[in-house]
Structure formats: structure tokens, C-alpha cells
Amino acid sequence: MKLNIAVLAGDGIGPEVTQQAIKVLNAIADKYEHTFIYEKAEVGACAIDSTGDPLPKSTLDICEKSDAILFGAIGDPKYDNNPDAIVRPEQGLLKLRKSMGLYANIRPLTTYKSLLHKSNIKQEVIEGTDFVIYRELTGGIYFGEKTLSDDGLVASDNCQYSAMEIDRIAHLAFRAARTRRKKLTLVDKANVLETSRLWRKRVAIIAKKYTDVAVEYLFVDNAAMQIILDPKQFDVILTENLFGDILSDEASVISGSIGLLASASVGDKTAMFEPIHGSYPQAAGKNIANPLASILSAAMLLDHFELNEEAQDIRAAVEKSIELNLTTPDLNNTNHFSTTNVGSFISDYVMDEDKTNYNKHNIDLGQSTII
Ligand code: IPM
Ligand code: MG
To answer: Beta-strand (E) ranges in the chain?
Structure first.
């Protein structure tokens, strides 16, 4: 298969982790005789620095003509610490999601046996957790009208949803539930918010078409507690933009590190694949960031094109690296490995899992593994 992939590495650790995902995709291309053509484009703080715009038109053009977008991370402390900044890196990501019609953000959460003991949550609580969050991505409070009074003392963000915006992602979530354990949980705040009551009404109507899927409704405050208390109860979580943003960071604690969580954003046009983590500026350039979320996002990209065997190869290699403790400091504080070392191990393992020459003794010593 031939795929044109737009690479928007972005800010902070974005370029480092994306580079590892590309390395792994190249290994897949070699092994299965695919052709992946990458075109780099700027987004975020780096794009503001060079063009003044967090999403230059040239970047959007590249995305529109590509088959898929591989996204790194966005954000820079110089904007985070300046609430008066008029142009912000995040606007680039939001505009990209909106312009590309990426209304559904799919965030899977799994656990790895060898990481269970590292989670802050008790092992017996998280073992076997496997759910996916369907987060609405182009509506709600993120995109509603924003106001700030002239005296700067009163601000507002409007939260608006239409039935159409709810229905299209609800259908995707119900269809996903059908291929899984057939349970869908709508997370909302219907005891307070009008938009949440509309979500409930629409989901109840759509549920009639998916009678094989059990539907449950949870208020977001309760859901935040249940995710930590009993995460195994969830299969597909469907929720609005802001709640999905918050709950997915919370859920990452279950898997052991936010550096493990990948996502796919799908909708009307080209789909995009990105880690759920941010730009982690403190780690930028140090070769310590966890590349697994980016590499697993590349696996989701392959799945999107029904290259399921290829995607499975990547997941198996990621599992192997975790099993061998061949991981970055967020998962391994005694003998950690560098971003590039983890990426090289995974691409080598993808190429040839039998011959990958990993030296267990060196791994335990925290030294080079690929020999
Ligand atoms: C995410 C991020 C973004 C969001 C930021 C960077 C705008 O936190 O993808 O979860 O809030 O959607
Ligand atoms: Mg977030």
C-alpha cells in the first residue's frame, strides 16, 4: 500500500517521539513492502515562531492532500504562563481538528501485565482493564463563543452541541461497542447541563438501533471516581469534548504512564493519529521522552487502513519492550533507556523478532540493548 503521511511533529518532545514512530513505520514498510511517503509541516509554537500562525495554510494544505496525519505534541511554557497571549500554540491543534472535521477522538486504554505493579492504583483493581474513550472533538465548550469584558473582570465560554454533532459520534461509539464487549457508557452532567440532557436524549434514541449493546449513563463526577475505583466495568465510554479530555488523562494512570496512550481522530476527511500526552517541554531534547504513545498511534494509523497484521506487529514489539523493561524513565527509574534506544529496539523487533539481538544482561545494566 502507498500512503502519503503528513508529519506534524510540533513542539517540545513532539519531534523526538514522532521520529521514533516514523522509524517503526519504515520497518513495517520494509517488511511488508509498503510505501510510506512523509511530508513534514509546522504546527504550534514552532509555527508561530516562524510564521506567526500556529496552523499556517501551507500545513493545512499538506494535511488535506495526505492520506493520514501523524501528529506529535503541541504547547510551550512561554504561552502557558502568559494568559494575555493572543496567539497560542493550542489554537493550531484546535483549528486543525475543526478544519479536518475530526469529530471523534478514539483513546484506547489497556493494561500491560509487567507494568501493573508500577501503577499508583492497586494491581487487583486495574488488572484486565480494557476500555476505549470516544471523545467528541470539534464541539462543546472548546469551540463555543468566548467573551472577556472590557474591564477584564468577567469571562465566558459557551458550551453548545447539536443533535447532529452528538449522533455522528454516538453511531461510531455504538459500532465500536458491537465489536467489543457490547457495553456503552455515556458520561455527562445531565443533572445540571442542558447540553448533557440533549446528549442523553439523542443517545437513548440511537440506542434503539443497537439493541445488542447495553447502555449506561453516568454523571462525570461519578465517572471520574469509577474509573479509578473499578475501571474494569467500562467498555466504550462516550463523552463530550471537555469531559473526554479530563477523563483520558485520569485514565492514563491505570496503564502506568501517560506516555503510553495513543489516539486516533477521525471524521469527514483525512484521519489524524497522535499521543494523548502534551509537549513535556522539560524533557525536550534530552532523549528521555517515552515514544510508545507515538509508536502506538502509528499502529492505530495502520489499523485505520486495515493493515491489522502490521499494527499487531507494532503492538507485539511494544509489549516486548515493556516486558523487558526496555523503557524510558517514566516507566523505569532505575535503569532506563533513551527515546531513540526504545524506538530502535521496537523497529528492529518489528523487522525480525527472532533475530533481534537484545542482550538481557545489558538491559539489566541499563546499557545498550541492540547489539
Ligand atoms: C489533548 C490536549 C489538547 C486538548 C490541548 C493540547 C489543546 O490536552 O489532546 O488532550 O485539550 O484537546
Ligand atoms: Mg488533554
So the answer is: 2-10, 35-40, 68-73, 104-110, 130-136, 146-148, 155-157, 183-188, 214-219, 236-239, 262-266, 271-275
**Tens digit of each residue's pLDDT, the chain (371 residues):** 999 999 999 999 999 999 999 999 999 999 999 999 999 999 999 999 999 999 999 999 999 999 999 999 999 999 988 888 899 999 999 999 999 999 999 999 999 998 998 889 999 999 999 999 999 999 999 999 999 999 999 999 999 999 999 999 999 999 999 999 999 999 999 999 999 999 999 999 999 999 999 999 999 999 999 999 999 999 999 999 999 999 999 999 999 889 999 999 999 889 999 999 999 999 999 999 999 999 999 999 999 999 999 999 999 999 999 999 999 999 998 889 999 999 999 999 999 877 655 655 555 555 555 54
Ligand 1 atom closest to the Cα of residue 105 is: 9
CATH topology of domain 1-115+260-371: Isopropylmalate Dehydrogenase (3.40.718)
**C-alpha–C-alpha distance, residues 61 and 270, integer Å:** 11
Helices (H), 268-368: 292-304, 308-323, 339-351, 360-365
SS3 227: helix
Q: Note the CATH architecture for domain 120-255.
A: 3-Layer(aba) Sandwich (3.40)
**Segments making up each domain of the chain, as ranges:** 1-115+260-371, 120-255
Contact 36, 91 (CB under 8 A): no
Tell me if 1-115+260-371 shares its fold with 120-255.
yes
The pocket around ligand 1, CB under 6 angstroms, is made up of 74-75, 90, 93, 245, 276, 278
What is the four-CA torsion angle of 179, 180, 182, 188, rounded to 10 degrees? -110
Active-site residue numbers?
Answer: 142, 189, 221, 245, 249
Mutate to test the pocket of ligand 1, among 90, 107, 136, 143 (most ligand atoms within 8 A of CB): 90
- Tell me the per-residue pLDDT of 229-266, one tens digit each, with 9 for 90 and over: 999 999 999 999 999 999 999 999 999 889 999 999 99
What are 71's strand-pairing partners?
A: 8
